[in-house]
Amino acid sequence: MWHFSFIHCVGKKIWTICPLPEFIFRILIAFVVLIVHIPFANCQQVTVTGRVTEVGGESVPGANVVVKGTANGTVTDLEGRFTIVVEPGTGAVLVFSFVGYDEQEIVVRQQTNIDVQLSSSTISLEGIVVTGYSTLMKKDIASSNCRGRCC
After folding, report:
1. What's the pLDDT score for residue 38?
2. Is residue 16 within a helix (H) or strand (E), and if so which, with residue range?
3. Nearest to 64 by CA among 45, 84, 46
4. 13: β partners
5. Do the Cβ atoms of 17 and 4 come closer than 8 Å?
6. What does the pLDDT read at residue 116?
7. How far apart are CA 79 and CA 127, in angstroms?
8. Helix (H) or strand (E) holding 129
9. Which residues contact 2 (CB under 8 A, 6 or more apart)?
């Protein structure tokens, strides 16, 4: 095997041909192949877009869209639109959720556009109080009524 090298000698440019050992040549080829394939490593991912609406057709802004079993997720914009990147060969499942609506799961397969209609949840939120770090039932909270004279 031969390779070309460039020698810079006293301001003159000289091209020389030198023999290159076989194992170094193979390592060099393997390195070049590796470098060429790196940009294609992310080609396995697919961008899925879509819109989340309620049954009446109104958009649902702020709905959660998460790839099940991962931390990969996004939130819909003001028009209910979302964009998320998934790996298609893994059987990725998108989970759509929003407060007051039933959670919905959709298998991605080869789809690149998924439109979802969320239906209203049948659970009543009337007796639930949301605190900073937990959710408590209204009946379980002890309260006092000071009527303006609190100590």
Report:
1. 59
2. strand 12-19
3. 84
4. 8
5. yes
6. 94
7. 30
8. strand 128-130
9. 17, 18, 19, 20
Looking at residue 1, its pLDDT comes to: 47
Taking phi first (over 0 means left), then psi (-120 to 50 degrees means alpha), and beta for anything else, what does residue 38 get?
alpha
Distance between CA atoms of residues 107 and 112, nearest Å: 11
The Cα angle at residue 112 between residues 37 and 97, in degrees rounded to 5: 120
Given a cut of 70, the residues of the chain with pLDDT beneath it are 1-23, 25, 33-34, 36-44, 123-151
Predicted TM-score (pTM) of the model is 0.55
**Helix runs in the chain, H state only:** 22-37
Query: The tokens 């090298």 sit on which residue?
Result: 5
Of 58, 97, 96, which Cα lies nearest the Cα of 79? 58
Count other C-beta atoms under 10 Å from residue 75's C-beta. 13
Write the DSSP symbol of residue 120.
B
Q: Which single residue is written with the structure tokens 């991605």?
A: 108
pLDDT of res. 135: 58
